[in-house]
Structure formats: structure tokens, C-alpha cells
Design goal:
Two copies of one chain form a homodimer.
Chain A (H helix, E strand, L loop, with lengths): L2 E6 L3 E7 L8 E3 L2 E7 L1 H11 L4 E8 H13 L3 E2 L2 E3 L4 E7 L4 E5 L7 H14 L3 E7 L10 H11 L3 E5 L2 H9 L4 E2 L3 H7 L5 H11 L3 E5 L5 E5 L3 E5 L11 H15 L3 H17 L8 H7 L4 E4 L7
Helix pairs in contact in A: 1-8, 4-5, 6-7, 8-9, 9-10
Amino acid sequence: MCLILAVTLNPALDLTYTVDEMVQHATNRVHTVLERAGGKGINVARVLHAAGETVVATGLLGGATGARVADLLAADGVRADFVAIGAETRRTVVVVDPADATGLWEPGPTITAGEWDAFRTRYEDLLDGVAVVVLSGSLPPGLPQDAYATLVRIAARRGVTTLLDAGGDALRHGVAAGPDLAKPNVAELRALEPGSDTPAAAAAVLRAGARAVVVSDGPRGLLALTGTGAWRAVPPEVVAGNPTGAGDACAAALARGLRDGTPWPDRLADAVALSAAAVAAPVAGSVDAALYRRLRPAVTVTPFSQGSAC
Amino acid sequence: MCLILAVTLNPALDLTYTVDEMVQHATNRVHTVLERAGGKGINVARVLHAAGETVVATGLLGGATGARVADLLAADGVRADFVAIGAETRRTVVVVDPADATGLWEPGPTITAGEWDAFRTRYEDLLDGVAVVVLSGSLPPGLPQDAYATLVRIAARRGVTTLLDAGGDALRHGVAAGPDLAKPNVAELRALEPGSDTPAAAAAVLRAGARAVVVSDGPRGLLALTGTGAWRAVPPEVVAGNPTGAGDACAAALARGLRDGTPWPDRLADAVALSAAAVAAPVAGSVDAALYRRLRPAVTVTPFSQGSAC
């Protein structure tokens, strides 16, 4: 019972292009192409693998792009067991010029009812020996909006702890099934509870079914509400870099904290430090290990009254 | 001796994305993704196959993108026999918004000396039963600049007719080996002979070794110089549409004219009509067959004095 299972239902082949200058409505020569296995659960798996944890990545992959994602994950040394789908896994293209980055997000593949059935069966099999399941990211077209709720309930029946990191309807429906931890970011939380401030919105997520909520708020750190306490965890400094994947590093740290039963303040400090170390690393799904070790003891975790939150 | 062999040494997986609005330095959601096997020789093969000709596409393909190109060609019904390389075949991404298109061209894969050896061996084998070889497009990194000259000489030793459609150094070196026909476009011709007008530059290509030259000039049609005559061929109307691939349709028509020994005026009329019909078709490598049949008898071909050209 020590494995962590990281689920990515809508993974991507992430392409990063560098150009001298991005000229709209012209032909741009790409100088370098970086290919990565992408998707939030895959980033979680890569961070945990790099930290020496035993993790398995699963989800749905299809076509030539799906095969490429599987090859890239294998090259990273991450254990993977994905269910094959008929459609092509999406790509994301990020074009980096000296000024900034331009993103192009392909739509996800449409999943058939049979493929979703096949995934649930594989998921049940994969839960053997798993302590914590991390459910991350958007749902591709064709999946029911309560897909995460289904996966949370299957895990709960098997006594496996669940961490849900999603937004929108996927988060709303998933929370109703009672995950052990929901980890929205501030934007996802506010979309769920418009008009509420962050503590009030987090409390609403608890009432909606989650047993604990950790809200990530970029360089401002984390807010955590559990059945027994509430904390803020703040990094000792603002780290410059690429924030993509910082939330996934946070989820990775929280997953191992859940597995180990680490006290909440330590668990949150670990998550803040690992997130900041991910910002400092050049690509999503990797962390700056030296920075992590330096920041870890310097994170400030303070309790706050839940009364003041509502 | 009836086959046409279409060579693409630097093919691509062509991706066409449609977006509502292309916003630079932001994330753009892609609505539709169109994947095509790309590259000039592949377009030539697709046009000839659609016209009922027996054609084989060859060249170099590698990695997941190369496998996808092979799958897409097979789905189009085009016979293909490519040599496998270790690196990934490049992609081209074209982002179409309501205003215009933005292109992103990946660099080609680097070809090893062993892969180039393997290609030459396969090419020799494939020449059995071939009447005309079409050599199209850019050379990927790693290939010698005189790669087309080598392929022209091998074909000539076997009595196989050659058509070279390229630019820059690939054209310059290739022409020196004496292809039966060189088909640069006006921009490629002018880059080869700066300061010359089109007829003078075409005459210089003849002197440099080509046995005939056909210069494509978009809606202005074709200029042809051969050892025995010179003609201009002009379409009866300007066709609106996508000019990408029109030059490849022109090369396809010229290749079948070379194979059949069609008199030059008829050959040029066919090439003008097929090019225009390619402009009217939505994607490169396809033609509007009805438009082709309507335009074919209406193309104007007029001789002109080579004396006036130099």
C-alpha cells in the first residue's frame, strides 16, 4: 500500500517551439522543438518519480501522438499503464519568442462509452497496492461530467485515498463524491463560488463534500481547510520562472503527505516548497531540487480561524 | 516503364489549425485540427494518384511524426516506400484565423550518412520500371547539397527521365547534373540568377545543365525553354483559392507529359490547367477535377523567340 497512482484522462503531447520573433500572418521558422509528455497528472507522476517515489501514470492515450507521449514518458523512466483510445491524443503548442509565449491548445479526443468502460476496469485493477490516487486536469469530450466522482467512489470502496485537482464541472461533480482532498487553484475556486472570498469559497467546497481543501494561489502560497484545522502556508520568497506545472508539483507533495499521514503543517510546507521549486525549473513536471531543499525549512505555516473565513 | 516515382527527402506532417482569432502572447483554443501528409513530392504523388496515374512516393521518414505521415498517405491510397530515419520527421503548423494564416515551420530532421546511403540503395531498387522521377523540395540537414545531382545521375544511368523542382543550393547543384527538366518558381529562379529577368535567368539554367526549364509564375502561368523551343502558357482566368501546392500540381502534369512524350504546348497547357485546379482545391495535393476539365482547352500557349530572352 505505498504506490501513488496519477490519473490523466486528457493528456497531451506538449510541443515548445522557439522562434526569433513570432510574426502573425507570416511564416515563422522554428529553431528548436522540445517535445514532452504533457497533462497535469503526468506532471504529478514525473515530479514524484524524480523525488524517488513509486508512482504509476494512467489515463487515456490514442493514435500517433498518444504513442509519442508513451515513448516520452518511458524515456523519463516513469511507469505508465494507459488505456488505448481510437482518437488522437491532443497536442499543445507553445511558441516562445524573446517577448513572451503564444499557446495553441488542440481540442481533446472524443472518448467512446466503451473506452470509458475499459478505463474504469483498468483503474480498478491498478488500484491494487495503491495508497493515494491523484485525479488531475480537464475531461476530454465524450466523458461524463461526473467521471471524477465515479473514480473517487471506486477508490473509496477500495479504501484508497483520493486527491482531486480540477476545475469547472469536473471539480463540482467530483467534490460531491467526497474526495479526501480537493486542490483547486484560486481561479478554479472562484469560478465554482462566484462572489465569495477564498476562505468562504474553500469552506463551501468542504460543505459540498470534500474532506479537505487546499487552494493554491501562486506566489501567495496555499490556504488549507480540513475537518480539524485551517492554515495558510507562504513561501519565504517569490521565485521567478515558469509557473506552468507548479500546481502539479503542489499536488505531488500533497499526495505523498496524504500517503504518509504527515501532519498538515508539514505537508503544506512541503507542498509550498515543491511548487516554488517547480517554478524555478524550466519545464512543467520538473523541480529544482536544490531550491526545494533550501526553501523547505523556510516556509511559514500559520493557523487561522475558520470562523473568520465564513 | 510506366511508373512515376515522386521523391520527398524532407516531408512533413502538415497540421492546419482553425481558431476564432489568433491572439499573440495568449493561449488560443484550436477548434479544428486537419492532419495531412506534407511535402512537395508527396503533393505530386497525391495529385498523380487522384488523376489515376501509377505513382510511388519515396523519401525519408522517421519517428512518430514519420509514422503518422505514412499512415495518412496510406489512407489517401498513395503507394509509398520510404526509408526509415532515426530522427523525427518535421511538422508544419498553419494557424488559420478569419483574417489570414500564420505558419510555424519546424526544422527538418538531421540525416546521417548511413541513412543517405540506405536511401540511395532503395532509390536504385525503386527505379525498376520507372519512367520519370520527380525530385521535389528542400533538403533536410545532414544531406550533401548535391544530393539531387547524385539522384539525377543515378536515374540518367538507368535511362530514367528526371524532373527537379527545388530552390537554392539544391537547385543549383542539381541542375549541374543535367536533369531533363528543372521547374523552379520565379522566386527560386531569381534567387539563382539575381539581376536577370525571367527569360534570361531561365536561359542561364539551360546553359548550367538542365535540358529544359519550366518556370512557374503563379497566376501569370508558365515560361518554358527547351533545346528546341520556347513558350508561354497562360491560364484563361485567375482562380481564387489556396496557392500552396499549385507548383506541385504543375510538376505532376509535367511529369506525366514527360512520360508520355506529349508535345510541349499540350504539356504546358495541361500543367497550367492542373495548377489552377489545385489553387481552387482547399488543401495542397488535391485538385478541382471539374475546373481542370473546363480550363484545360482554354489555356493559351504561345511560342516566343529565345533571342528576345537573352
